[in-house]
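A quick aside before the break. I want you to see a complete sequence-to-structure record at least once, exactly as it would be stored in a machine-readable document. Don't worry about memorizing anything.
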Amino acid sequence: MLNRESGILLHFTSLPSEYGIGDLGGHAYEFVDFLKEAGQRLWQILPINPTGFKDSPYQSFSTFAGNPLLINLEELVKWELLYMDDLANIPPLPEDKVDYGAVIDFKTPLYLKAYQNFTSKSVLKEEYERFVEQNKAWLEDFSLFMALKAHFIKLRVEPENRHDYEDFVQLNKEYLTDDQLADYYYGAVWQSWPTDISTREPDAIKRWTEILAEEIGYHQFLQFVFSKQYAALKKYANDNDIKIIGDIPIFVALDSSDCWANSKLFLLDENGNPTGVAGVPPDYFSEDGQLWGNPLYDWPAMKATEYKWWISRIKSALEFCDIIRIDHFRGFVGYWQVPYGSKTARIGAWMPGPSKDLFRAIKEQLGDLPIIAEDLGVITPEVEALRDDFNLPGMKVIQFGFGGGDDNEHLPHNFPTSHAVVYTGTHDNDTSVGWYQSESLHTQDHVRRYLGVSGDDIAWDMIRSAFASTPMMAVVPIQDILRLDHKARMNIPGTASDNWQFRFSPNALTSELAQELKELSEFNGRNL
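That is the input. The structure line, written in tokens, reads:
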């Protein structure tokens, strides 16, 4: 973090692909080549864990596991676990966005076939067994969790086992959203499982591990494949002087193996339901606040274990990336607790977090922390002190700087001399073109006068400002590099549909674009 560098924010799912979703295959390697040609040293991604609710990478079934949808199918052909004929009948999948349901329907049978071939061959067996042994601390719980979810969903949808759904809705509608009602009814969430296994009684764990041995092996296989493909890609990036900036949410999903396997570390009642959930109060992104719904940590319980779970989480993340961005960093000082069952995040209370105590424990175990603190939103002096005491760079977002006074901290002339990461926008922002077009005439005028531009090429005007600014690291979303409008937006906070779908075309990253970006980087001392 000590060199003056720049890079691109791009999640794997947004890469081109013949199979409906970006993955860890050839197009990812081509993107590394583009970064190198363009003089960039940083590749920032979003969380790479298995996506759960509404396909959000910030609502995952595990904070340790990888997302199987990112597995490249052609690599499985190289390993002789699939054959090219298996990939011949690709359904009509969209090229400009991710249709997650269609991708799951297409890829799952191929993964199952690859696993069946794997079990009947000796290829990769020793490597697989080493992986399972080295990762059993989280892999055993995760694989059983996923197998149990699938089992109880299948059981419930069989006609002879269905309950009266209308009665179920009447009993629970005050406490659960429509999506949660469906998940509970069909047995998808762990709180709806039989009590002995939802509470992890040892005999139940043993019994279900034996019953679902085949399904557990399948999920362990997928994690092995993901890890092997990801490690090869990361090595290729690092060998080409590209560092990967990973991203971990501060909270985990209620419907996760993390929460099920470590329930005593969360604020849950005797039924496994949260006593309060995470969110943020009304802010720039949403007048109702953002109701995330994640369970909250029992920080005294975490402290009693010397923060073992959090240290393991950071250590695991650093195996997949070189630098970590922790989302919602301010939650370590104080977090917004919303009553369980609330429809918005308007009503809540700020509660104290572990602050320096947690980061001292992490540093004692893992050394200096290559962490970027996402310090956006309501930031207090205590949050700034935590960030600065551990020498963690915060974030500056140029889009946030305009339309107000000249003291706005997100205007480049107010940036710290070096210790921050500057962005034109993040995955939660509109693209710079879309943002500019939707802003008031007053704000548009402020942008043009401040940057000294006409506004005709606003995305690159913003990139120039970011690259010329003082922070050591500058990161720009791929949508701004490609000058795309609001249709290419990745996420709209506070909404639950039509997010995380953006993809760009295979021919978008040209040599001319790489040269343009390289010259801009060199001119601003970011490619030395």
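Two observations worth writing down. The mean pLDDT is 93. Residues 213-239 form the longest helix (27 residues). We'll return to this after the break.
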